[in-house]
Amino acid sequence: MSSTAPTFAYRAQSLDGQPLSGTIDAATADQARERLESLRLRVLELEPAASAATSVRALRGDDFVTFNQQLAHLTAAGLPMEQGLRLIAQDLRRGKVAATVRQIADDLEKGSSLGDAFQKYANRFPPAYGRLIDAGVRSSNLSGMLLSLGQHLQTVARLRSALWRALSYPIMVFLALCFVLAFIGHLVLPKFEEVFKDFGTRLPLMTELLLSGSRVMGTTAIIAAALLIAAIVLWQVLRSTGRDAGLRDAVGLRLPLIGQTLKRSLISRWCDAVRLGVSGGMDLPSAMRTASDAVGSPRLAREVEQLVARLEAGQPLDDGRRYRLIPATVLAAMDLSTRQGGPGVLAQVLGTLSQMYQQQARAKVGLIPAVLTPLMLALLTGIIGFVIVAMFAPLITLIQSVSGGGK
């Protein structure tokens, strides 16, 4: 059985009476209703979505970036949306995703609004995409919203690519070290052990320790390499299906160097996503919730819910409390710009914050190879040096004993 949460189809109204429809994932119908109501939506209908609606793989990665760019340019050019979507469907690589785009075009031809059409198939696109589309439509700046979202996605992709490039060399050095240790522990040291038995002399302590633990060392190296490779494969599989958020929060954010990089990347992405929502005409609580959904961090979402509760209670964002992910600088800047300026000022401040944390994330990425690579090389050199000295120590002892006996 699948472990994914059930999907519910809904029809609702916003506070200003705008009709909304789409799908939402939740464990139960009550939880789905509570989540919709927390977004300030009045639920009109809520029922389990048809199984066919969840059988199509979500559009992610390069396919989604390409789709979003094409949609933005078609919107800016004034081409009828239905015709543009059908042209985009012809260019997509995955047949099922192309079918979804055609279904959206069909709904538009039947009279559905663009926001409603995307909300109906919300589970087939990245989180919060339909809501950002709807915000762009309501602000009469859909092309600007999509172009800004495209820039946001490119920034995310560049940071992710830079992180993997920074980690690739230390990872390869570590795997090479594991291979060398496994080779020495299982093939080389047992041969030396047989040779040393014929010496008839007591071996140096370091040689005895190395020989006694040779097979353990080789097996440990194999296990470490296998675990690292499995972790990389698991991460890629989870990321391709959009389920890497829990692993990233539980493990990635706790790692030295890497955790600080991921934290700053998350904050940069969240600030930029809030900026998109505010620029699209969303109120700040809705923009913050939409941004947390777009970023996809459960830990960040919990902190955002606490902040939204303060806003809805009429309290300031910056109350002196410290959060594990959201820096006090972000809260103070958002609080000040909200009180002293309008949405335009807030969007500008959020853009500045996003760029600042993006630069900090890049700086942290640069530290990763600068720190890990020398450590890996020093570890490799130290272990290989120890093995060489331990293997030649008995030969030196034997030569000295023979030379002393000859005198």
* Total DSSP E strands: 3
The helix fraction, in percent, is: over 70%
Strand percentage, roughly? Answer: 5-15%
Point out poorly predicted stretches. 50-56
User: Biggest β-sheet, characterized?
Assistant: 3 strands, antiparallel
Strand order of the largest sheet: 2-1-3
Chain-averaged pLDDT = 80
Distance between the termini: 81 Å
Label the overall shape: elongated
Class computed from helices, strands and strand pairing? mainly alpha
Radius of gyration computed on alpha carbons: 29 Å
Order of helices and strands: EEHEHHHHHHHHHHHHHH
Explain the overall architecture:
By secondary structure, the protein is mainly α. The chain has 3 domains: 1-55, Roll (Ubiquitin-like (UB roll)), CATH 3.10.20; 56-125, no CATH class; 140-391, no CATH class. Helix content is 72%, strand content 5%. The protein has 15 helices and 3 strands. It has helices at 29-38, 61-77, 81-91, 95-109, 114-120, 129-138, 142-197, 205-212, 214-240, 245-250, 258-279, 284-295, 298-312, 328-340, 343-406, and strands at 7-13, 19-25, 42-48. The protein has a 3-stranded antiparallel β-sheet. The longest helix is centred in the last third of the chain and has 64 residues, at 343-406. The termini are far apart.
Topology (elements, then pairings):
Elements: E1 7-13, E2 19-25, H1 29-38, E3 42-48, H2 61-77, H3 81-91, H4 95-109, H5 114-120, H6 129-138, H7 142-197, H8 205-212, H9 214-240, H10 245-250, H11 258-279, H12 284-295, H13 298-312, H14 328-340, H15 343-406
